[in-house]
Amino acid sequence: MNSPHGSVHVTIDNRAVEIPLGSTILKAAEASGIYIPTLCAHKDLTPFGGCRICIVEVEGMRGFPTACTTPVEEGMIVRTQTAQIQSIRNEIFNLILSEHPASCLICDEKDQCKEYSVTVRKVGVTTGCRFCPNDGQCELQDVADKIGVTELNYPIYYRNLPVEKDDPFYDRDYNLCILCGRCVRICQEVRTANAIAFKQRGRHTVIGPAFKRTHLDAGCEFCGACVSVCPTGALSEKSRKWRGKEDRAVTTTCPLCGIGCQINVLVKQEEVMGVLPAEAPELNNGQLCVKGRFCIPEAVNTYKRMKRYQKLEDGVLVEITPDEAMALAAEKLATCTPDSFGLIISPDSTNEDFYVAQKFAREAIGSNQIDTTASSYYDGWFSEYLKLFSIGGTLEDLRRASVIVAVGLDTRYGRSVMGVELRQAMRRGALIVTIHPRRHNLSVIADVWLKPPWRGTPRLLNDLMTLINDPRHNVIVSDGADKLDKAAAILRGADSTVTLIGSEFTPDIDCDKIYAAVDELAKATHARILPLPAAGNLVGSIFMGAYRQLSPGGGPSDHMLDVHNMLHSTPSDDKTGGLYLIGVDPAPYRGTAEFIISQNSYPAENAQAADLVFPAAMFTEVDGTMYNQEKRLLNLHKCVDPPGDALPNWQIVSRLAARMGKAGFEYATVEDVQAEIPPIVKGAGDSLIKRNKIGVMTKKTLEEIRAKRARDGMPTFRISLDEHIFRGYPLSRWVGGMRIIQPVDTLYINPADAAQFGLADGEKAAVSVNGFERVWPVIIDDEQPSGEVRVAVNAAEWNMRYGLSITIRKHNG
Amino acid sequence: MILTDETIRQIKIRMARYPSRRSAILPALTAAYKQVGHLNPAIYREIARVMDIPYIEIAEAASFYTMFPKHEVGRYLIQVCHNISCSLRGADNLIAYIEQKLGIALGETTPDKLFTLIAVECLGGCATAPTMQINDTYYENLTRARVDEIIADLRAKEEQDNR
Amino acid sequence: MEKVLFTHVDQPEQHRIETYVKNGGYQALPKVLRDYKPDEVIDIVRKSGLRGRGGAGFSAGMKWSFVPRDTPKPKYLCCNADESEPGTCKDRVLMERDPHLVVEGIIIAAYAIQAHQAFIYVRGEFVYPAFRMEQAVAEAYAKGYLGRNILDSGYDLDLVVHTGGGAYICGEETALLSSLEGDRSLSRIRPPFPAVEGLYGCPTVVNNVETLANVPYIINRGPDWFRSHGTEKSPGTKIFSLSGNVKRPGNYEVDLGVPLSYVINDLGGGVPEGHTLKAIIPGGASTPLLLPHQIDTPLDFESMAQAGSMLGSGAIIVIDDGACMVWTAMKLIDFFQHESCGKCTPCREGTAWLKQLINRIEGGEGRPGDIDLILDVCGNIMGRTICPLGDAAVMPTESIIKLFRNEFEYHIDNKTCLVKTSYPLA
Strand pairing of C117-122 and C158-163? Predict the structure, then answer.
């Protein structure tokens, strides 16, 4: 590693070390393999110097400088292990432990403790006195071992604070806290979420969210960074406390959104027990969001997981053998004509799944009717959305950008590593403009927050565009003209701009106009665009040809049939023959096909939604590849075996094809599939976009909807959707914590709108879309823009009904 | 809203004076304290909104600085220095005398919500000890007679205000 | 003895700009802006030998010279008026009664380091001094001594009066900067020193009120005049805050180097009748104690250090035979424990232990071995913290135990005081 300022030579414990100028003594020691105990220091954090355990002796320097904060100088002579240093270190450690229960560190019998510690007998046997959920994974224990502390001078002062268990995902026992401040610093310095802080001062210092608020109220993103850096058991993951150390960790890719974060899946006793971020400096850089950090074990281990093949018989699902299932499916599919077959696959599947699935449709059935649920999520604006990929930027562009425009992006729970990037960009001086209709987690870091009114976004973007070209242009805006001027000035002066696209405006009745304006804006300001799709492998689905218009490799397909339009435009008595759903909730499709095969890891809410059920493996159970939003190829690695009869999607599809007597599906391994995938057509995204026809709705149908809405009368409400969908279902269905942080089944509405419908807080509202009605309790929210309600619902379920125009009425009872 | 327009105006004036608006956190807390007489989370929230700074940063700073009471106190907050210089000139007895006179212990408020008595660290009135501060005003070279007079004056003022 | 800083403090309208000017104020500033380059100002102050009056006694001119000349970053000057160390009450007098002297000193210092923004950090309790400073600053703006193009010199300076929230640690210069940035007032690791990377990461000088108040006089009368006061290594006059058991407590300005006894006995009238002197805390609550036989020690930085204590902020606390020394130690440690910011382990945990142990002894529940445990904890804090607050807590504590160990032992053995403290309220 070459430092621009050159390097210096220092001597540590008689060992000569060459190290870049500006490094700390601690870094120099680490580089030369010399151990200096540390507690408050952490590689991702700026030096703090609070715990004082890393003190060393430096020739010619007064006192005992701390290794973590003292920069090296040429010719410096450092001693880390003199008798005096050891004794002082021991004393400082003693002071740290004077408020930390320490029986696990110094008890003579600690080694025998574990085997005797578990007992159910209510009799006087040794039960162990360990009260730390992170026993065995504690840095205090490491330091105690390394510096050889065996007795303590001070009696332990037990703070007797209640253990805090109110928030989802992790518990907090501040009796074990040593106030190293890592959690506060990572939350403030790296995540800039500022959910927790030091409170009070001196000995009364405690850590937590301000006052008695919960982490949830304090704006916590539940990214778990604080839990990861805690050196003690003060912060512990609910899902794996008391479980000790993992057997192994497997690095793989998180498919819960399009970023493609690298994760280390912790496996114990052949079960996924936890997830930690992998370093991956080019990607998530050691950070994760709540989904990746905390949701995966629950999502993949849920007891509801599909383990067996099932068929619908007299209204109930009964287990059958894989062979029976294959035979039944083959028999049914044999009756399908190319026009009466459809295959829909989840856009978070692997490349291999997409490839084999499209090949199945095209070669085994001879049908071109393949699609993903992404096209329904983005509804009629899918092609507009995909256009944005044509000038797609990379994370590298983002890291170099001097101006960042975030369109409809909130990074609190999803895409939160992008929030970290944005905050770091802000720190290095990049200017940030956000466009969002309501207060969002980036509003506090934005230099300008443009807040478009309901249906005002296209206008706002066009005004911005006008102002960029001509600052003297007089734009009439009702609110925030100065902000618009400021934003225009920022964009005009930018030398490198990156535009990030979140999902706030997806879907929106003006979606096409918004994306077109964003596209224009990007061109005018020479910006790169980085769309951040909610779906894990949207790019892969395009490259693998999982759409009727596209062939594998990204080239155009000759066929132009439209499975969704077919499903909806045909009268119900003229049903599709067979529908093969992979990772898709079958419920909304019931009644549109003669028979439905549902291949998923999760069961449908309604057992009667599918005729045949195939159990699929989870991403933690397969090898394979995905593309992230930057079109970067990422690997998935198998961490554990799938449960029961479950198999990877591509494998089930291959077996079915073989059962149908089709050749060309004899894949033994995932590599066999990969070997067959044609090379990606250069500029695949571009050719796709030029065709401009992907997606389910044409411009004509879009206009029809607008016209219909006009006929139905205003107000028309926009509904924002739960985007944390995986394999067809909201994550909150399987993960309890998600239900807490993002309450489902609650409708947020602006006070004025609520008044219009005569709705009061806590009352119920019936919301209907084309006759499909749901009832939710109402929360009146100042932050909610007028003309829009917010509720977390399953996008697929709603959009199937072109659900953008909704009506609301008070529900009694 | 707890904060008055005037307080908000004060906060905004302060914000404009510093290169970084965060620097105005303490002045904002001071302005709110002057208006309300104490600070609490609802006030932090309002300040956070006015300053467009995360709530926690306001609360975090407030919790560090002990000059602002964090719960409601009497109209007159009697803060008696109990450090060495004042103690050498009778601060302990001063506290005892006020306790006895008002019928409350340290940290308590009189039932009429007029006085709250607390002990504080050095006020910088060492050469004029013993010293106490009531709200914004320093009272120095205190004697029993002077304390009687001060309390009587404040009570009289209160009566006048109530009339 | 000639008064300098206190020449005009007793004049009723001295805080108004007209009176200040009439009495010779705002003469140094035009001179500086007209005749001197910034480096020349630094040179004059360095030649005068002015040392910081906040406690550390570092050369003011030297401190200013550390500020990089060629940086594109803005520079800041902070006047430290967070006067909070028990015994110290001198800056308050200057701010209340001669605020323009402080303002003029700030402007000259800011010019010397080429800062265009200055702050005066006044402790929050000082409502009245802060009000007087605000008033003076407003007057100075109105007369063109502050703001754009000061006195047509082309030099700009803005000065903000900032008030604190009750925290002794803010007097420590890096903690002061944290506080001024809106953070919790935690001290920062040096290096980088504030002169290079201070407020908002920019070069910053932090000077005490009294230090800056000396500057206009040094400019007007020259470094040689300044050196005619005080001693060779501690030139100038100094304001001493005399408190505790003396007949006439007060703030007295004398030449550095006069004997301690001059301030205590000649100016302060000695301990009250019927009492004898027991101990002296010579430089504020954080300094080691001196015994009666050391009363002739000269009041300058070197002599005080030689006597085993420190000149500190010049706060002389006189303790007579009416005080129990365990009680004294308790009063001192209670303060430091309350003011520890909590960042470093040794200070956070250590001061809490000291408080607990000393209070236990004072409360008659001391145990054999407690004294050694106190000394042990002291050893664990001393020199092992980021800022000097830890040391500040230890120095008087260690010193009291060293000098009056018998009182601690008596307390532990007899569960009561050797000397029953009683200072009645008059």
Answer: parallel
